[in-house]
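Supplementary material to the annual report.
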Amino acid sequence: MKTSNTSRGYSLWQDAARRLLRNRPAVFSGIFLLLMVAACFALPLLPCIPNPNTTDLDAIARGCSWQHLLGTDHLGRDMLARVLYGGRISLIVGFAATNVSLLLGLIYGMISGYAGGRVDAWMMRAVDVLFALPFIVLVIVFSLSIEEVCRDLTSWVVQHTGWSRDSVAPLLGLVPLFLAIGALGWLTLARIVRTQTLALREQEYVLAARSLGLGHCSILLRHIAPNLLGPVIVYTTLAVPGVMLTESTLSFIGLGVKAPNSSWGTLIKEGADRMEIAPQLLLFPSLFFCLTLLALNFLGDGLRDALDPKSAKD
Amino acid sequence: MMRFLTKRVLQGIFVVFVLETITFFLVRALPGNPFLAERKLPDHVLAHLNSLYGLDAGAWEQYVRYWKAILLHGDFGPSLVREGVQVSEMIAQAFPVSLLLGSVAMLLSIAVGIPAGMLAAYHRNRLPDTLLMLGAVGGICIPSFVLSPLLGISLGMHIPGLSVAGWDDSLCIVLPAIALGAVNAAYVARLTRGGMVEALTSDFVRTARAKGAGPSRILWKHALRSGLLPAVAYLGPAFAALITGSFVVETCFQVPGMGMHFVNATTDRDYFLIQGLVLCYGVLIVLANLIVDILLAWLNPHIRSAE
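Predicted assembly:
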């Protein structure tokens, strides 16, 4: 359609970006998150950050100083380094698990909504049943049962790539964790996607595509999937903090990230055990963790307001 | 109404049945067994133990036997890890503790969350709203495993009479209930605000205003009913989750509730205990959802007429 030349038209995404940029908490949160990711992934490469596992026996459970900006823990390890390395693990698990549930939820929801009718009813009933399962039990069961598979995977990778076991094992050790969290976190997304697909399926352009003889697969991929992007982006941003929370809870219980890795959850646990002697061990990891969650939530809310103006009316 | 209820109850029974079936086969598919010890048991001892608890039979036979024992005798089986203790005894001991703690936490989150949400909606986009919602996001982002030790260090150590750990006197419930209720209060506040804002901008409120109803009458009489819908829908499952206990809070304050059993039973492979706990949890979830449906129908005339 031709618009008049005097007023420039905005695409949906340009419009959303403008709305997002006007939302100050969301912009600050976005910048904060970028800084946090940069700090966790790039800062430890600098020589001024010590190895998180070297112990400084002259400074055990000290407060803040120039040598150790955030103090040291009960073994004399530098807290700043530990928090940054922990953040790395927490962020990796958070984003990886969210992507796993994104993939599962998207596929399941799209099939369910597009098929409709009886198939849809049964698929959604299955989601209802899974929703009633106690989440924590399932995550534990699932991560325990795929642990062995992942150990095999580690040996396979070591054999076939020639990388040393020490460099591969810590990262691959995280696989059962984020697979388990991701494989169980897709239920909400499946519901959201299904509702959207159900509505999109009735649109004229889908009807047109079908009458032109397009197959179901290409209709789903080319005509329905792009229109799901908005709600999916919003949900993903809001799901990451939930996933990170689950990971930390599991690590806090002692079932999540295992040594030599440590995440913010394990650091908080260690800090909570020693909070009477050295409260900074609890305070700093908690602060980093809570601020990151806060920023993710604000960014998610901002994105929702930007991409779904109807819900942002209030 | 009766037909609707019967249908929902039958559906609920089906859900619990499927849930229990999934759990039954899932825990048996786990690597390891309940009798793993520091020192490996000799094979003949292990075989004896397995036959003593009926674990040597085929999975289907065990499955049928398990349901028979529950339905005919109300027998949930023995704990495989704690010798001579029945699963039903363990649940009967832990459930009242979790029920009490969960109920107090629930009341707390309702008493804080709903007024906060109403206040925020009433002062929409003004200072009280911003502050309250900032607090709510904070409540969501501070996980219970951070909040619990912080509460212990800040309140528990300085206010005399508040105990930081254990379950013996009457005041010991205060801190765990706050730790457990805070997150829910934050969610309830956000949902109440959302629902109230929608109600306050709807046509029937405009009509009421045009009719000359005062602001407080509109808030309490007209908007509250439909404004509470999202919060009520959330509270049902949340309540079921609360009264089945939280591992983190129970560990932090050493409360002998159900949450500890959930995690320990799974890591110990205590098959019968896991099954008993999941059954208990499933029944509670189904019941909570049923009550929520009834409440929603009572609150919302649209749903009522559709049924």
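Residues 150 and 173 of chain A are 7 Å apart (CA to CA).
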